[in-house]
């Protein structure tokens, strides 16, 4: 995999893995942390996927075998608002703050997937709980879409509204793909496919937030 590959994990390594580490460094050396943060953000913007390649390169040199999809998905659940600031809305109206909450809630529950499906036998023994968990995800998806609809009324101009509508359609497409991937998992047991599909859904959630920010916060 190289820089710019269309995979969701490449866009999430910087906010989910690298920035939390830099936040810890900031407690010891603010200047060094801020310098690294700015430099990595700049190079990632110019060469999407750079931080992913950097991390993978380090793991290869260390002869480490880690499932990046699973690891990044798990880490998503522990990110702070400061680490994912580009995916948070700053406007104070209830509709925008509700979208922040629903976006965070969906990503949080998706981050639990590795723990929930690691033991496939346990899933089948606790079928009622499994159904409840995936219904919880479906509910979080619906609540996010409802929140997006509320925010849409704040976006000025037809072009901005169309851009958000396109993002919604993409999100719905990947939501359906996620559902189908889960069905395949129960037949084939390919956990990594579920991790990737969940990461795509997180990425699409982030793209909705970026679109809203670009249309409502930089006027």
Question: Can you describe this structure in just a few lines?
Answer:
The chain is mostly helical and 219 residues long.
Describe the structure using short key phrases:
single chain, 219 residues, mainly alpha, 77% helix
SSE diagram, text form:
Layout: H1 8-26, H2 30-46, H3 50-61, H4 68-76, H5 94-110, H6 113-117, H7 120-125, H8 127-152, H9 158-188, H10 191-216
Overview of this structure, please?
The protein is mostly helical and 219 residues long. 77% of the residues lie in helices and 0% in strands. The protein has 10 helices and no strands. The protein has helices spanning 8-26, 30-46, 50-61, 68-76, 94-110, 113-117, 120-125, 127-152, 158-188, 191-216. Helix 1 (8-26) packs across helix 3 (50-61). It is globular, with a radius of gyration of 18 Å. The termini are far apart. This is Programmed cell death protein 10 dimerisation domain-containing protein. Belongs to the PDCD10 family. Keywords: Angiogenesis, Apoptosis, Cell membrane, Cytoplasm, Golgi apparatus, Membrane. It is found in: Cell membrane; Cytoplasm; Golgi apparatus membrane. Pfam families: PDC10_C, PDCD10_N.
């Amino acid at each position: 995999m190289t820089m710019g590959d269309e995979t969701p994990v490449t866009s999430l390594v910087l906010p989910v893995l690298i920035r939390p580490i830099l936040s810890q460094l900031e407690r010891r050396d603010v200047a060094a942390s801020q310098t690294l943060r700015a430099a990595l953000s700049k190079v990632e913007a110019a060469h999407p996927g750079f931080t992913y390649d950097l991390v993978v390169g380090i793991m290869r040199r260390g002869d480490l075998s880690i499932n990046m999809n699973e690891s990044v998905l798990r880490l998503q659940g522990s990110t702070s608002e400061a680490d994912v600031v580009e995916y948070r809305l700053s406007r104070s109206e209830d509709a925008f703050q509700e979208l922040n909450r629903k976006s965070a809630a969906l990503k949080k529950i998706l981050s639990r997937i590795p723990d929930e499906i690691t033991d496939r036998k346990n899933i089948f023994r606790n079928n009622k709980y499994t159904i409840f968990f995936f219904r919880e995800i479906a509910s979080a998806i619906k609540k996010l879409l409802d929140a997006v609809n509320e925010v849409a009324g704040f976006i000025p101009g037809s072009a901005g509204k169309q851009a958000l509508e396109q993002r919604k359609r993409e999100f719905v497409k990947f939501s359906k793909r996620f559902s189908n991937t889960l069905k395949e998992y129960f037949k084939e047991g390919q956990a990594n496919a579920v991790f990737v599909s969940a990461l795509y859904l997180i990425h699409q959630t982030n793209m909705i937030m970026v679109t809203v920010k670009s249309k409502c916060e930089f006027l």
